[in-house]
Design brief:
twelve-stranded antiparallel sheet, ten-stranded antiparallel sheet, 24 strands, globular
Length: 336
């Protein structure tokens, strides 16, 4: 598998090339209490005029199951940000993300979120959400996503107001996405903290814009299991009729290349933070964001004509889960 290289996590934003949005995002869970988690995101939002593009930093702390998440956001001009075209590098105001390190301070008073964290970077192996490498430079699909650090470890501190967490070897991830706009409807999940397993699961379902309509659900996923990447994202299999969606749950089954996967991801309403995601054209989507969802994953391998069960994994309050919707009829408070 390819490792993260100096060009892998370069900023893809091209000033003056029309509306664009791009994000680097990190999350981690306390391995002893997975319902304690954090999420950080560094974003560029360009409405089509590079002079009005902004660099945003977001943070959420999940103090525990059923406890209201704490969130903050900071917005500055992208023209004042330092953005690397040669490796991971994003600095705006007091916030910074680089290879193996992130630090920042956003929000005010008792709501201020501060962090100073290190994470493994050089020993990570990329997980690609799209089936072919050439898709990352092509015009289609419009939205790109991959995870450069799918199973990293964080160390350092994160605090809200005067309440500080010591982050000691927490399992987490670093991902990167970009496109002309936020996809109007999607489910996305990533879990690397299962009971008694170092498996990594990442999957998505999305409805793509087709003129004034949206496509059926298109679905893909990758599972890193026993050192092997099991890819369930072949173009021929993305139209998956087994996918079931509800407001706070997502499940389905996929068969590709001699493997079968069943997944189920869900979280309680109170374990989501609501975020307003603005598109380059000024329209809004709403991200229902949880880093303490639960995941169930079953894997079978085909031998002859039989399916042999290889794994039955459970991630308890340890799964990243994001749902993007276009309306506010969901009951999740919009925090930022």
């Amino acid at each position: 598998m390819p490792q993260a290289s100096p060009s892998t996590d370069s900023v893809r934003w091209v000033p003056g090339a029309g509306g664009q949005v791009e994000s680097f995002f990190l999350k981690a869970n306390n391995p002893n209490h997975p319902e304690q988690a954090f999420w950080l995101k560094f974003t560029i939002l360009d409405p089509g005029d590079a002079y009005s593009a902004v660099a945003e930093v977001w943070a959420i702390r999940f103090p525990g199951a059923g406890v209201t998440p704490q969130a903050a956001k900071q917005t500055n001009s992208a023209s004042q940000a330092s953005l690397s075209r040669d490796g991971l590098g994003f600095q705006t105001a007091s916030c910074e993300l680089r290879e193996g390190k992130t630090l920042g301070r956003i929000g005010l008073g008792d709501e201020q979120i501060c962090w100073d964290l290190e994470f493994n970077y050089d020993d990570q192996q990329i997980m690609h959400g799209l089936p072919h490498p050439w898709m990352y430079d092509a015009s289609l699909p419009r939205n790109k996503v991959y995870t450069s650090c799918p199973s990293t470890r964080f160390r350092g501190q994160l605090s809200v107001g005067g309440d500080s967490w010591q982050v000691d070897n927490w399992p987490g991830m670093l991902g990167h996405n970009w496109g002309r706009a936020h996809n109007p409807r999607y489910y996305w999940a990533q879990c690397n903290l299962f009971d008694n397993s170092d498996c990594v699961f990442e999957g998505w379902s999305a409805r793509l814009p087709l003129g004034p309509w949206l496509s059926p659900w298109l679905t893909g996923g990758v599972v890193r299991f026993e050192g092997q990447d099991l890819r369930f994202n072949a173009v021929a299999g993305v139209l998956n009729r087994s996918v079931q969606t509800s407001l706070f749950a997502w499940s389905g089954e996929s068969k590709q290349e001699g493997w079968k996967m069943q997944w189920q991801v869900e979280a309680d309403r109170e374990d989501f933070a609501g975020l307003r995601y603005t598109n380059p054209d000024g329209s809004d989507n709403f991200c229902l964001n949880s880093k303490i969802a639960s995941a169930k994953l079953k894997l079978w391998q085909k031998h002859g004509g039989d399916w042999i069960e290889r794994a039955h994994l459970v991630g308890r309050k340890s799964c990243a889960f994001e749902i993007l919707v276009q309306d506010e009829d969901h009951g999740v408070p919009i925090l930022v």
